[in-house]
């Protein structure tokens, strides 16, 4: 069996990636980069690692609920629950604005 990674969620402290208990997971200290870049890299690693499981879960939910809308299988519909999971993860990652689901009265318009 494959070795498992350190349990998430992880947090950032400067250029360090830490467990919630403060144990070092990684240090971003690339040669010839500014400290700000190392800190940005650490922030990106934390954001990505913490989003991995929720994104996989949302993708699985969307895949399970997908219904073909045409005979060619080029258009699909997913459940509102699956779309809610996807939206929640993206909002948490600051990738979309917090708003209602597309096509609802509170969808807030296109981003």
- Low-confidence parts, pLDDT < 50 over ≥5 residues? 104-111
Q: Measured on Cα atoms, how large is the radius of gyration?
A: 18 Å
Overall, the morphology is elongated
Residue share in helices? 25-40%
Q: Structural class of the helices, strands and pairings? A: alpha+beta
Mean of residue pLDDT values? 84
Largest sheet: 3 strands, antiparallel
Order of helices and strands: EEEHEEH
Write down how many β-strands occur, each being a DSSP E stretch of 2 or more residues.
5
Strand order of the largest sheet: 1-2-3
Number of helices: 2
Distance between the termini: 43 Å
Give a verbal description of the structure.
The strands form 2 sheets. A 3-stranded antiparallel β-sheet has the order 1-2-3, covered by helices on one side. It starts with 9 loop residues before the first strand and ends in a 19-residue tail after the last helix. Helix 1 (35-65) runs antiparallel to helix 2. The chain has 111 residues and is an alpha+beta fold. It has helices at 35-65, 80-92, and strands at 10-13, 16-19, 24-27, 67-68, 76-77. It contains 2 helices and 5 strands. Mean pLDDT is 84; it is low at 104-111. The radius of gyration is 18 Å and the shape is elongated.
């Amino acid at each position: 069996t494959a070795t498992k990674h350190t349990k998430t969620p992880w947090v950032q402290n400067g250029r360090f990636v830490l467990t919630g208990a403060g144990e070092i997971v990684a240090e971003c200290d690339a040669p010839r980069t500014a400290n700000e870049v190392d800190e940005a890299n650490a922030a990106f690693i934390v954001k990505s690692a913490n989003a991995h499981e929720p994104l996989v879960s949302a993708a699985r939910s969307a895949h399970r609920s997908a219904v073909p809308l045409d005979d060619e299988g080029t258009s699909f519909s997913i459940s509102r629950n699956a779309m809610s999971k996807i939206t929640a993860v993206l909002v948490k990652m600051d990738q979309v604005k917090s708003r209602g689901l597309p096509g609802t009265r509170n969808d807030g318009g296109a981003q």
